[in-house]
Amino acid sequence: MQWTYQLTIPTTLNQQTVRDCLKQWLLPKRIQGQLRQGRRLWVNQLPASVATLVHTGDQLTLQFVPTDFRTPTSNYLPDSAATVAILYQDQDLLVVNKPAGVKSHPNQPGEVGSILNHLAAYLAPAGQAPYMVHRLDQMTSGAMLVALNPVVVPILDRLISTKQIRRSYYAWVRGHFEATQGQFTAAIGRHPTDKRKRWIDVPGAQSAITDYQVIRTTPHQSLVKLTLQTGRTHQLRVHLAASGHPIIGDPLYDNAASTAPRLMLHAIQLHLQRPFSTDTIDVQAPLPALFSDDSQIESF
Protein backbone atom coordinates (compact mmCIF):
# COMPACT_ATOMS: atom_id res chain seq x y z
CA MET A 1 0.00 0.00 0.00
CA GLN A 2 1.29 3.41 -0.94
CA TRP A 3 0.00 6.88 -1.80
CA THR A 4 1.63 8.87 -4.60
CA TYR A 5 1.12 12.60 -5.11
CA GLN A 6 2.19 14.43 -8.26
CA LEU A 7 2.10 18.13 -7.50
CA THR A 8 2.65 21.05 -9.85
CA ILE A 9 4.78 23.79 -8.30
CA PRO A 10 2.80 27.07 -8.21
CA THR A 11 4.31 30.50 -8.82
CA THR A 12 4.26 31.19 -5.08
CA LEU A 13 6.88 28.44 -4.58
CA ASN A 14 9.09 29.34 -7.54
CA GLN A 15 12.81 28.88 -6.76
CA GLN A 16 12.08 27.37 -3.36
CA THR A 17 13.53 24.11 -2.07
CA VAL A 18 11.53 20.93 -1.80
CA ARG A 19 11.83 21.35 1.97
CA ASP A 20 10.22 24.80 1.69
CA CYS A 21 7.35 23.29 -0.30
CA LEU A 22 6.73 20.53 2.23
CA LYS A 23 6.80 23.07 5.06
CA GLN A 24 4.39 25.38 3.21
CA TRP A 25 2.01 22.44 2.72
CA LEU A 26 2.11 21.77 6.50
CA LEU A 27 3.56 18.28 6.18
CA PRO A 28 4.89 17.29 9.64
CA LYS A 29 8.67 17.26 10.05
CA ARG A 30 8.62 13.58 10.96
CA ILE A 31 7.02 12.67 7.63
CA GLN A 32 9.36 15.03 5.76
CA GLY A 33 12.23 13.08 7.31
CA GLN A 34 10.70 9.77 6.29
CA LEU A 35 10.41 10.94 2.67
CA ARG A 36 14.02 12.13 2.71
CA GLN A 37 15.43 8.98 4.30
CA GLY A 38 13.37 6.72 2.05
CA ARG A 39 14.43 8.64 -1.07
CA ARG A 40 10.81 9.00 -2.11
CA LEU A 41 11.07 12.45 -3.70
CA TRP A 42 11.28 13.22 -7.42
CA VAL A 43 11.28 16.45 -9.43
CA ASN A 44 10.30 16.08 -13.08
CA GLN A 45 10.70 12.29 -12.63
CA LEU A 46 14.33 12.62 -11.49
CA PRO A 47 15.43 11.68 -7.94
CA ALA A 48 15.51 14.74 -5.70
CA SER A 49 16.40 15.74 -2.16
CA VAL A 50 14.74 18.20 0.19
CA ALA A 51 17.42 20.72 -0.84
CA THR A 52 16.51 20.52 -4.56
CA LEU A 53 15.34 23.84 -6.02
CA VAL A 54 12.03 23.80 -7.86
CA HIS A 55 10.50 26.21 -10.35
CA THR A 56 7.01 27.16 -11.45
CA GLY A 57 5.45 24.29 -13.40
CA ASP A 58 7.85 21.60 -12.13
CA GLN A 59 6.29 18.27 -11.18
CA LEU A 60 7.12 17.21 -7.63
CA THR A 61 6.31 13.58 -6.85
CA LEU A 62 5.92 12.38 -3.27
CA GLN A 63 5.48 8.70 -2.42
CA PHE A 64 4.09 7.83 1.01
CA VAL A 65 4.10 4.37 2.61
CA PRO A 66 2.23 3.03 5.68
CA THR A 67 5.19 3.42 8.07
CA ASP A 68 5.03 7.20 7.51
CA PHE A 69 1.82 7.39 9.54
CA ARG A 70 0.71 6.59 13.07
CA THR A 71 -2.65 5.32 11.75
CA PRO A 72 -2.01 4.12 8.20
CA THR A 73 -5.16 2.03 7.83
CA SER A 74 -8.85 2.71 8.38
CA ASN A 75 -10.56 -0.20 10.11
CA TYR A 76 -14.16 0.95 10.48
CA LEU A 77 -16.60 -1.88 9.79
CA PRO A 78 -18.80 -1.08 6.80
CA ASP A 79 -22.47 -0.46 7.56
CA SER A 80 -25.35 0.60 5.33
CA ALA A 81 -24.54 3.60 3.12
CA ALA A 82 -28.23 4.51 2.88
CA THR A 83 -27.94 7.42 5.35
CA VAL A 84 -24.91 9.02 3.69
CA ALA A 85 -25.48 12.49 2.19
CA ILE A 86 -22.29 13.84 0.62
CA LEU A 87 -21.99 17.63 0.44
CA TYR A 88 -18.53 17.73 -1.16
CA GLN A 89 -15.92 15.18 -2.25
CA ASP A 90 -12.54 15.19 -3.98
CA GLN A 91 -9.61 12.76 -4.06
CA ASP A 92 -8.44 13.68 -0.55
CA LEU A 93 -11.48 14.46 1.57
CA LEU A 94 -15.23 14.66 1.76
CA VAL A 95 -17.83 16.56 3.75
CA VAL A 96 -20.86 14.56 4.85
CA ASN A 97 -24.15 15.91 6.18
CA LYS A 98 -24.42 14.07 9.51
CA PRO A 99 -27.94 13.49 10.85
CA ALA A 100 -28.74 14.28 14.48
CA GLY A 101 -28.75 11.18 16.70
CA VAL A 102 -26.02 9.33 14.79
CA LYS A 103 -22.54 8.94 16.31
CA SER A 104 -19.58 10.36 14.39
CA HIS A 105 -17.46 7.27 15.06
CA PRO A 106 -17.72 3.94 16.92
CA ASN A 107 -16.50 3.82 20.51
CA GLN A 108 -15.98 0.07 20.85
CA PRO A 109 -14.38 -2.62 18.63
CA GLY A 110 -16.97 -4.20 16.38
CA GLU A 111 -19.44 -1.33 16.84
CA VAL A 112 -21.40 -0.15 13.79
CA GLY A 113 -24.05 2.47 13.12
CA SER A 114 -21.80 5.55 13.14
CA ILE A 115 -21.18 7.95 10.27
CA LEU A 116 -17.71 6.49 9.72
CA ASN A 117 -19.22 2.99 9.48
CA HIS A 118 -21.70 4.25 6.89
CA LEU A 119 -18.90 6.01 4.99
CA ALA A 120 -16.82 2.82 5.02
CA ALA A 121 -19.66 1.13 3.10
CA TYR A 122 -20.11 4.12 0.79
CA LEU A 123 -16.39 4.31 -0.09
CA ALA A 124 -15.63 0.59 -0.35
CA PRO A 125 -16.69 0.18 -4.03
CA ALA A 126 -14.06 2.79 -4.99
CA GLY A 127 -11.37 1.11 -2.88
CA GLN A 128 -11.31 4.04 -0.42
CA ALA A 129 -11.82 4.34 3.32
CA PRO A 130 -12.69 7.12 5.78
CA TYR A 131 -10.24 8.67 8.28
CA MET A 132 -11.53 10.84 11.11
CA VAL A 133 -10.45 14.49 11.22
CA HIS A 134 -12.99 16.07 13.57
CA ARG A 135 -16.19 14.86 15.17
CA LEU A 136 -19.63 16.22 15.87
CA ASP A 137 -21.51 15.34 19.06
CA GLN A 138 -24.06 12.59 18.52
CA MET A 139 -27.05 14.94 18.70
CA THR A 140 -25.45 17.62 16.47
CA SER A 141 -26.27 17.57 12.76
CA GLY A 142 -24.53 19.08 9.75
CA ALA A 143 -21.24 19.33 7.89
CA MET A 144 -18.54 16.92 9.07
CA LEU A 145 -15.08 16.74 7.48
CA VAL A 146 -13.56 13.30 6.73
CA ALA A 147 -10.18 12.44 5.17
CA LEU A 148 -9.86 9.79 2.47
CA ASN A 149 -6.25 8.77 3.14
CA PRO A 150 -3.72 9.04 5.99
CA VAL A 151 -1.56 11.53 4.07
CA VAL A 152 -3.93 14.45 4.53
CA VAL A 153 -5.02 13.72 8.11
CA PRO A 154 -2.14 15.61 9.82
CA ILE A 155 -2.38 18.38 7.22
CA LEU A 156 -6.11 18.85 7.81
CA ASP A 157 -5.49 18.80 11.58
CA ARG A 158 -2.99 21.64 11.21
CA LEU A 159 -5.26 23.56 8.81
CA ILE A 160 -7.97 23.43 11.48
CA SER A 161 -5.60 24.47 14.28
CA THR A 162 -4.27 27.40 12.21
CA LYS A 163 -7.85 28.48 11.35
CA GLN A 164 -7.42 27.85 7.63
CA ILE A 165 -10.41 25.53 7.98
CA ARG A 166 -13.24 27.25 9.83
CA ARG A 167 -16.45 25.73 11.18
CA SER A 168 -19.71 27.63 11.65
CA TYR A 169 -22.88 26.48 13.39
CA TYR A 170 -26.49 27.56 13.85
CA ALA A 171 -28.07 27.08 17.26
CA TRP A 172 -31.41 27.90 18.80
CA VAL A 173 -30.79 29.07 22.36
CA ARG A 174 -32.89 30.27 25.26
CA GLY A 175 -33.30 33.98 25.88
CA HIS A 176 -32.04 37.11 24.13
CA PHE A 177 -28.56 38.68 23.93
CA GLU A 178 -27.77 42.27 24.83
CA ALA A 179 -25.62 42.64 21.70
CA THR A 180 -26.33 41.24 18.24
CA GLN A 181 -22.79 39.92 17.97
CA GLY A 182 -19.85 39.25 20.23
CA GLN A 183 -17.30 36.73 21.44
CA PHE A 184 -17.05 34.22 24.29
CA THR A 185 -13.51 33.85 25.65
CA ALA A 186 -13.87 31.87 28.90
CA ALA A 187 -11.42 28.98 29.24
CA ILE A 188 -12.99 25.50 29.32
CA GLY A 189 -12.04 22.42 31.32
CA ARG A 190 -13.55 19.41 33.06
CA HIS A 191 -16.53 20.04 35.30
CA PRO A 192 -15.44 19.72 38.95
CA THR A 193 -18.29 17.39 39.99
CA ASP A 194 -19.79 15.86 36.82
CA LYS A 195 -17.49 13.75 34.62
CA ARG A 196 -19.87 14.02 31.66
CA LYS A 197 -19.62 17.80 31.51
CA ARG A 198 -17.19 20.64 30.88
CA TRP A 199 -17.34 24.13 32.38
CA ILE A 200 -15.63 27.51 32.30
CA ASP A 201 -12.78 28.82 34.44
CA VAL A 202 -12.13 25.54 36.28
CA PRO A 203 -8.69 24.18 37.27
CA GLY A 204 -6.78 23.07 34.19
CA ALA A 205 -9.11 24.94 31.82
CA GLN A 206 -7.79 25.63 28.31
CA SER A 207 -8.32 28.76 26.26
CA ALA A 208 -11.49 28.74 24.15
CA ILE A 209 -12.88 31.35 21.77
CA THR A 210 -16.31 31.38 20.12
CA ASP A 211 -17.75 34.17 17.96
CA TYR A 212 -21.53 34.62 17.88
CA GLN A 213 -24.03 36.56 15.78
CA VAL A 214 -27.76 36.76 16.40
CA ILE A 215 -29.68 35.81 13.24
CA ARG A 216 -33.26 36.25 14.49
CA THR A 217 -35.37 35.95 17.63
CA THR A 218 -38.73 34.69 18.84
CA PRO A 219 -40.37 36.09 21.99
CA HIS A 220 -38.22 33.91 24.26
CA GLN A 221 -35.43 32.42 22.12
CA SER A 222 -32.67 33.34 19.67
CA LEU A 223 -31.17 31.75 16.57
CA VAL A 224 -27.42 32.41 16.60
CA LYS A 225 -24.57 31.73 14.21
CA LEU A 226 -21.47 30.47 16.00
CA THR A 227 -17.92 30.28 14.66
CA LEU A 228 -15.27 28.22 16.42
CA GLN A 229 -11.85 29.79 16.86
CA THR A 230 -10.74 26.84 19.02
CA GLY A 231 -12.01 23.28 19.34
CA ARG A 232 -12.55 22.34 22.99
CA THR A 233 -14.90 19.52 23.97
CA HIS A 234 -18.50 20.83 24.27
CA GLN A 235 -17.15 24.33 23.54
CA LEU A 236 -20.30 25.79 21.98
CA ARG A 237 -22.61 24.11 24.46
CA VAL A 238 -20.58 25.29 27.47
CA HIS A 239 -20.00 28.86 26.28
CA LEU A 240 -23.70 29.34 25.61
CA ALA A 241 -24.86 27.69 28.83
CA ALA A 242 -22.37 29.70 30.90
CA SER A 243 -23.67 32.91 29.28
CA GLY A 244 -27.21 32.07 30.41
CA HIS A 245 -28.32 30.96 26.92
CA PRO A 246 -28.16 27.14 26.81
CA ILE A 247 -28.78 25.44 23.49
CA ILE A 248 -32.38 24.22 23.37
CA GLY A 249 -32.57 20.46 23.86
CA ASP A 250 -29.10 20.07 25.36
CA PRO A 251 -29.40 17.10 27.77
CA LEU A 252 -26.39 18.23 29.82
CA TYR A 253 -26.68 22.00 29.94
CA ASP A 254 -30.34 22.91 29.28
CA ASN A 255 -32.58 22.42 32.31
CA ALA A 256 -35.66 22.26 30.07
CA ALA A 257 -34.09 19.91 27.52
CA SER A 258 -36.88 17.33 27.71
CA THR A 259 -39.27 19.72 25.95
CA ALA A 260 -37.26 19.62 22.68
CA PRO A 261 -36.95 16.65 20.27
CA ARG A 262 -33.20 17.14 19.74
CA LEU A 263 -30.19 19.30 20.49
CA MET A 264 -30.83 22.38 18.36
CA LEU A 265 -27.27 22.67 17.04
CA HIS A 266 -26.36 22.32 13.35
CA ALA A 267 -22.97 22.59 11.64
CA ILE A 268 -24.02 24.91 8.83
CA GLN A 269 -20.74 25.64 7.02
CA LEU A 270 -17.16 24.48 6.53
CA HIS A 271 -14.64 26.87 4.99
CA LEU A 272 -12.01 24.51 3.56
CA GLN A 273 -8.40 25.05 2.65
CA ARG A 274 -7.59 22.06 0.43
CA PRO A 275 -4.35 20.15 1.21
CA PHE A 276 -1.41 20.76 -1.15
CA SER A 277 -3.29 23.68 -2.70
CA THR A 278 -4.19 27.33 -2.34
CA ASP A 279 -7.81 26.56 -3.26
CA THR A 280 -10.52 27.29 -0.72
CA ILE A 281 -14.05 25.92 -0.75
CA ASP A 282 -17.15 26.81 1.24
CA VAL A 283 -19.43 23.85 1.92
CA GLN A 284 -22.96 24.48 3.19
CA ALA A 285 -25.15 21.95 5.00
CA PRO A 286 -28.88 22.59 4.43
CA LEU A 287 -30.63 23.83 7.54
CA PRO A 288 -33.02 21.19 8.96
CA ALA A 289 -36.67 22.12 8.50
CA LEU A 290 -37.21 22.24 12.26
CA PHE A 291 -34.73 25.14 12.55
CA SER A 292 -36.94 27.32 10.31
CA ASP A 293 -40.22 26.70 12.16
CA ASP A 294 -40.22 29.60 14.66
CA SER A 295 -43.63 28.74 16.12
CA GLN A 296 -42.55 25.18 16.88
CA ILE A 297 -39.23 26.36 18.32
CA GLU A 298 -41.07 28.69 20.69
CA SER A 299 -42.99 25.69 22.08
CA PHE A 300 -39.82 23.92 23.25
From TrEMBL:
Q: Specify the domain of life of the species encoding this protein.
A: Bacteria
Q: Which UniProt keywords apply?
A: Isomerase
Q: Name one GO molecular function term.
A: isomerase activity
Q: What is its EC number?
A: 5.4.99.-
Keyword Isomerase annotated: yes
What InterPro entries does the record tag this protein with? PsdUridine_synth_cat_dom_sf, PsdUridine_synth_RluA-like_CS, PsdUridine_synth_RluC/D, PsdUridine_synth_RsuA/RluA, RluA_PseudoU_synthase
Q: What class of enzyme is it?
A: isomerase
Domain (Pseudouridine synthase RsuA/RluA-like) spans: 92-242
Iron is among the record's keywords: no
Q: Which NCBIfam families match?
A: rluA_subfam
- Spell out the protein name for this chain: Pseudouridine synthase
Source species taxonomy? Bacteria, Bacillati, Bacillota, Bacilli, Lactobacillales
